[in-house]
Amino acid sequence: MFPERLTQGYRSFIDGRFAAERSRYEALAQAGQRPEIMVIGCVDSRVSPEVIFDAAPGELLVVRNVANLVPAYESHGETQHGTSAALEFGVQALRVKHIVVLGHALCGGIRAFADEQEPLSPGDFIGRWMSQIAPAAESLGPRKPEDGDTYLRRLEFASVELSLKHLMTFPCVRILVERGKLALHGAYFGVSSGRLLVRDPATGRFEPVTDEGPDRLAMFRCASD
Ligand SMILES: [Zn+2]
How remote is the CA of residue 136 from the centroid of ligand 1, in Å? Predict the structure, then answer.
């Protein structure tokens, strides 16, 4: 049976948001989609880019995978590249102007890699997928017992950094970035705090988005992540 939660949610959507935005949906159907921003996010159910950025239909092109990773460019081989195919579509067909790699706190994929967790199935798809971030882990040096979960946070940031590097290995991305027609961004969502950090390209540091007032920042500092 189709989940009742989805039937209820759909009823709410069709009577509410769809009714309110019907003309927008119709225009998008006729003219086609033209999102200017692509987001590469994690499958984590708490980190939905459309929710975090309060996006309307047609505004964000979103691809989600375990731990918001971008694989390095490969021109051949037999691996299936879902994320690379979405990138190709976003960059070449839709001509997005921005690509955001959206990392997040408490990422299960990052933890699975760092803790060297046992495979969940004989295929070990998560283990093989997450092995891509080995260079990010190497950049942090050995994990020390006293680091605790701080190490996981650092690895979450480092893997966003690595994905930004991998994006530049795609010739179509690199060319458009060099021509100033495409911008790459790193961001990080702290689940319980709601805090959004954005990578400063000049320093590589992740800083709160600038339009947040001091009161809101104080609230973030009180939160656990
Ligand atoms: Zn995650």
Answer: 15
Determine the distance separating the centroid of ligand 1 and the alpha carbon of 9, expressed in angstroms. Answer: 24
| Domains by residue range for the chain, with CATH | 1-32 (no CATH), 34-208 (3.40.1050.10)
- Identify the H or E element spanning 185: strand 183-190
Between the CA of 62 and the centroid of ligand 1 the distance, in Å, is 15
Per-residue pLDDT of the chain (225 residues; tens, 9 = 90+): 999 999 999 999 999 999 999 999 999 999 999 999 999 999 999 999 999 999 999 999 999 999 999 999 988 766 778 999 999 999 999 999 999 999 999 999 999 999 988 989 998 999 999 999 999 999 999 999 888 889 999 999 999 999 999 999 999 999 999 999 999 999 999 999 999 999 999 999 999 986 654 455 555 554 445
- Residue with the two structure tokens 């942090």: 140
Ion ligand 1: protein residues whose beta carbon lies under 5 Å: 42, 44, 67, 107
Query: What strands lie across the sheet with 206-208, from one edge to the other?
Result: 60-65, 37-42, 98-104, 183-190, 195-199, 206-208
The model carries a pTM of 0.91
How many whole angstroms separate alpha carbon 94 and alpha carbon 96?
6
Three-state DSSP class for residue 148: coil
Question: DSSP assignment, residue 147?
Answer: G
Buried-exposed string 194-216: b where 16+ CB fall within 10 A, e elsewhere:
ebbbbbeeeeeebeeeeeeeeee
